[in-house]
Design a protein that fits this description.
Elements lengths: L11 E5 L6 E5 L4 E5 L2 H6 L3 E4 L4 E5 L6 E4 L5 E5 L6 E8 L4 E7 L12 E5 L22
Parallel strand pairs: 3-10
Antiparallel strand pairs: 1-2, 2-5, 4-9, 6-7, 7-8, 8-9
């Protein structure tokens, strides 16, 4: 009988909005994240990661009283603090991401140095999702 080594447990991180009314815990590997050039992600400067819903726990703040934003595709809903306005996380479901997910804004984690995170880039601005991730940001404006 061979015993396979188990994968190391992922760390649990705490996060919050600016004022602290919205606080959460999330279990994830924060060494890699993504940025998207779509208009909402660009304007909010989101550095994101996705986890399964059971890896996320809202510690403070009633989700039904948080501000929400949902765009045309209705694939995800962002939650933000109604007091300070920080967009901390979102919930959605996409087959390409394995179904239900929670997206985390790594800028809201209390113990992560985002400058040390490897960031890969999506081209959401041009609905170019199937091109996948790449190391360099996609251009927002087409070359003239």
């Amino acid at each position: 009988m061979t015993i396979e080594p188990s994968a190391p447990a992922l760390p649990t991180h705490t996060g919050s909005c600016h004022c602290g009314d919205l606080r959460f815990e999330v279990t994830l590997d924060p060494s890699a994240a993504t940025r998207c050039n779509c208009t909402i992600c660009t304007k909010l400067a989101i550095v994101g990661a996705h986890v399964k819903p059971d890896a996320f726990r809202l510690v403070a703040g009633d989700e039904s009283k948080l501000g929400t934003y949902e765009w045309a595709s209705k694939s995800a809903q962002r939650f933000f603090c109604p007091r300070c306005g920080v967009h901390a996380y979102g919930r959605g479901s996409l087959a390409q991401l394995g179904g239900a997910f929670v997206s985390i804004n790594l800028n809201c984690l209390d113990d992560i140095e985002v400058g040390d995170v490897q960031i890969r880039h999506w081209d959401g601005r041009h609905d170019n999702w199937m091109a996948g991730l790449r190391d360099q940001p996609w251009k927002i404006f087409a070359a003239s």
